[in-house]
Structure formats: structure tokens, C-alpha cells
């Protein structure tokens, strides 16, 4: 029975996906943030080890970016590793970092997308930080979608880093704290975020059924729309992505009001 159902899905899903694509409104998001959540739970559900779950998740990144290209998205932010994740057991963290490095290298080798690391790279092992920087340099001249690779990323840490950078900048200019306090505003801080110069995310997608931000793009997502999907990240399909884009396009955006 299970094989029969899978066979039916293989036949019907492409037809359904094509129908969803035809009916997509024109107002697709410019910037999509994706919280790639559920790798470990997926591995547990299928009786595999954690590393297998992370590898299955990594394998789904390239298809996602292809789907984003297909509908005309300009910027994608992928949250691959949080600052909290850095406290995981050493053996699990080492394996996960290796998987992330391999995935980023593979994306860079294709030269389809411009990669941009976002996060506290100083918290990562030097080898991982260097691999991320090398991927950014190797794709800096690519005329394609901008892909933010969030590794060692935490929203609170980003805001703290932005304020610290702002203070250093004005200290170098000789600005006093009193003078800075009189002029500093939202835009000043935005200019020092990891994503400075980029549009804020219009849509944030989180997989695995969790319905919380968990520190993802805290500053930038103040006016974002959110879409929560029940599927674990390795099971996230093109049809799930298209549903998220359709749901966004059909909403009446109130821009935080």
C-alpha cells in the first residue's frame, strides 16, 4: 500500500506543482530567509544517525536555490548553524561543520550564485571561517542571486556586533558619546548589520513545524511575513516551497502595522 501511495504521489505532484506555478501572482518576495530545521529529527524518524540527517539536509540546499531562481527571488538567507549550535557535543559539531564546508564549496564551484557568509566567523574554527571567506571571494564576480550563508549566526549577536561596529567607527572619527547619542537612529545600526546594503527579508520560512524565530534575522524581520511548514528540512519539496511563495503573494502586507 505504501509503495502504491508513493507511486501516485510521483505522478500527481508534478502536475500539482505546474498548476501552482501557473497560478503564482507576480508579487513574489525579493528576499527569502529559510530556517533549515529538522535534520536531526528526520534522522531519528528514519532510524539513521545525526550526521546522515545533516547530509540529507545539505543535499536539499541546491534544489532550494534552483526553485528560488525559478520564481525570480533576488536574495536568499540560509540559516545553517546558530551560535547556540556551537555548544553541541564536539563530535557532532565537527561532523556538522565538515558537512557545511563541503556544501558551501559545492555551491561555490557551480558559480551560479554569489555567496556571502553572515555570522560571527570569529566563533568558528579558523578552517571553517577560511572556507566560507574563500567561497565568498570565489563567487564575488558572479552575476546571480545573492545567497547569505548564516553560520555561527545569532540575531542578538548580530545586533551587538552592529552596535560595536558603529561605536568603533565613530570613535575613530572622534565623535563623543554625547554627540553620537543625539544622532544615532535605526538606519545607523542597519548600516552595520551582517546584511548591510541588502533588502530586508519579505518572507521567512521555517521547516519542521516549529513556530518561532529562534533568533533568526531579529532586526531585519520586523516587517517580514512568516510561513511555517510541517515537513522536516530534508523532506522539504518544491511543492512546499511553491505553497510558501503563493501564501506570501496572497497576503495583504501591512508592513508591521
TrEMBL record:
GO molecular function, one term: metal ion binding
HAMAP family cross-referenced by the UniProt entry: ISPT
Protein name as it appears in the record: Unannotated protein
Keyword Magnesium in record: yes
Keywords: Magnesium, Metal-binding, Transferase
Cofactor(s), names only, from the UniProt record: Mg(2+)
A cellular component annotation (GO) from this entry: plasma membrane
Any matching Pfam family: Prenyltransf
UniProt-listed GO biological process terms: polyprenol biosynthetic process
InterPro entries linked: UPP_synth-like (IPR001441), UPP_synth-like_sf (IPR036424)
Presence of the UniProt keyword Lipid biosynthesis in the record: no
PANTHER family with a match to the protein in the record: DEHYDRODOLICHYL DIPHOSPHATE SYNTHASE COMPLEX SUBUNIT DHDDS, DEHYDRODOLICHYL DIPHOSPHATE SYNTHASE FAMILY MEMBER
